[in-house]
Specification:
Length: about 130
């Protein structure tokens, strides 16, 4: 009986860990500093809800995705959500369940459905780089 409980607890733990790795990871905050003098670099930090527990560390690459709801204009119905990559990020700091990243580059307008994006927004999805 103890062996069965032990096996069941390991199975539940494995399922929970898999669900956490496949979870929705999003941008939950953005902070921009204000330059105090001309020529001072302007940094825009992107806060995401994934960290070292998900294998993220300083220097890791992340991809940011924008989710857009399509509309069926012929039938006047909400269509489906589509997700497309908009930017590459680089992690500058990571803790257990949060990381801070900075935008390295945006995808060119010709490769995104709605055109060019100049910023990552709160609510954008993030994944470990080079998955799509």
């Amino acid at each position: 009986m103890k062996l069965l409980l032990w096996i069941m607890s390991i199975a539940v733990y494995a399922l929970c860990a898999t669900a956490a790795l496949a979870g929705d990871f999003k941008v939950f905050g953005i902070r921009t500093d204000f330059p105090m003098s001309d020529g001072q670099p302007l940094f825009r930090d992107v806060y995401v809800n994934m960290g070292t527990n998900q294998g993220i560390k300083t220097g890791s690459s992340l991809d940011a995705f924008r989710v857009v709801t399509t509309v069926d204009e012929l039938n006047q119905k909400t269509g489906r959500n589509i997700s497309f990559k908009i930017a590459k990020l680089k992690v500058i700091h990571a803790e257990t369940d949060v990381a801070v990243a900075r935008v390295i580059s945006f995808l060119p307008p010709e490769s995104t459905p709605i055109g060019s994006f100049t910023n990552v927004m709160v609510g954008d999805e993030v994944e470990v780089g080079n998955k799509k």
